[in-house]
Amino acid sequence: xxxxxxxxxxxxxxxxxxxxxxxxxxxxxxxxxxxxxxxxxxxxxxxxxxxxxxxxxxxxxxxxxxxxxxxxxxxxxxxxxxxxxxxxxxxxxxxxxxxxxxxxxxxxxxxxxxxxxxxxxxxxxxxxxxxxxxxxxxxxxxxxxxxxxxxxxxxxxxxxxxxxxxxxxxxxxxxxxxxxxxxxxxxxxxxxxxxxxxxxxxxxxxxxxxxxxxxxxxxxxxxxxxxxxxxxxxxxxxxxxxxxxxxxxxxxxxxxxxxxxxxxxxxxxxxxxxxxxxxxxxxxxxxxxxxxxxxxxxxxxxxxxxxxxxxxxxxxxxxxxxxxxxxxxxxxxxxxxxxxxxxxxxxxxxxxxxxxxxxxxxxxxxxxxxxxxxxxxxxxxxxxxxxxxxxxxxxxxxxxxxxxxxxxxxxxxxxxxxxxxxxxxxxxxxxxxxxxxxxxxxxxxxxxxxxxxxxxxxxxxxxxxxxxxxxxxxxxxxxxxxxxxxxxxxxxxxxxxxxxxxxxxxxxxxxxxxxxxxxxxxxxxxxxxxxxxxxxxxx
Length: 539
Ligand code: NA7
What we know:
This protein has 17 helices and 23 strands. The protein is an alpha/beta fold and 539 residues long. The strands form 6 sheets. Strands 1, 2, 3, 4, 5, 6, 17 and 18 form an 8-stranded mixed β-sheet that branches. Strands 7-16-8-9-12 form a 5-stranded parallel β-sheet. Helix 1 runs parallel beside helix 15. Bound molecules: ligand NA7.
């Protein structure tokens, strides 16, 4: 191997986005593409998150690639919400189907990327000391992949096992006959709690913030539904990409308070029965995420359901959220029911915070100590921007991404950042807040068009101008601050990680609007983007 390998494109990551990017650019555009993956297999999120109960809570008809009808037809999903193993098998199937493995270097982390202004190319270094150069870099590093790994005092002294849900061991963790503590009650926490509640001898759930949770209404896949989709596959894909959340269901245009209380109750009851958190939030009424009154109507309903389910009064009180419902909506069958089991105990660590992890277990500030054999950290991720900032990235004028994003991440369209030419981010900060796989494909297609445009016109680079980036940031903020998602602490606004900028990280205008605005860039000649060092159009 030469000292430095030159390729057209480097792709970082082999999750949903990286796999498709490699396929699209290598096989679609005929470019010389080299992919890198830190793990020893493909899958990204679905490679790492192997904890018991891990599954997508998006219905599978929208949790897959939608650009390839044959692939959609040939792969037979078994359940409404696919479990981790099945999604990983699907991604491996796609990798083999498209013969991608020969272009992927596994067990390799990208340490740094540096833009060379003289050559107009990126210089990329791996953790193995290898050097590559590429005209384009596509970073499919994941929205939720940089783990938020807490460091409680005394953590290393614990005599049992500690596992983070997103770094779960590949071999089975047998908790039968064991005392298990779970810290965290987000999507991962609620999933792992239900499973641990079935297996562990005793389960202690250390809850800081209670969550609303809707049933999933899980079950086998409806073959009729898949057939209907196949009958008009293009129309279906278009409807997904024209919707707000891209979850594959129809969103409601009806404001919650525009109907009678009886009708509202009927709609909520129907949504509850159908299951799915996003469906409940976006398909029951149009304004649960934006109007406090509509949000309260929804949470009153959800609290009523909790009161009907949770038997112990004190447990009910601790499990009942006091906030608006404006975190990423959860769904899970049997979550609240788990707390009715005698061997499952809820510990309120908002009232009495965790002081330390000791040799024996978890000690709270009050001095109460819980003896445990296994501790599960379901503490989430340094989401959205975290993975990009883990790589040492340097753009024009020697300015690093870490410097540029110190106050907050800045991008145009959630895909490119000014001063970082030809560097594309799939589902980067200030991108749409949606279900991901179909949107990953859409963004990669957009990137492929931009790359083709550069090559067809004999150019070297494309990048957003500072002014255009600022406009996009403003657009995103104007929309996001009208929603309730900015009013409640969660990874959506960066408030889950100590020291991280608490700000807006998304374009909350919906995928349909994003599609209209961003999708038109190619025909318009990329207004707001500078090509080959000269402005192609004024911003
Ligand atoms: P989340 O949704 O960020 O949840 C993390 C949970 O961990 C949440 O309940 C946190 O409480 C809790 N947490 C984090 N740090 C601590 C400490 N130090 N002490 C106590 N509790 C803590 O992560 P998930 O992995 O569940 O899900 C992330 C996304 O992945 C999900 O939305 C899906 O899109 C896929 P807090 O609420 O901050 O008080």
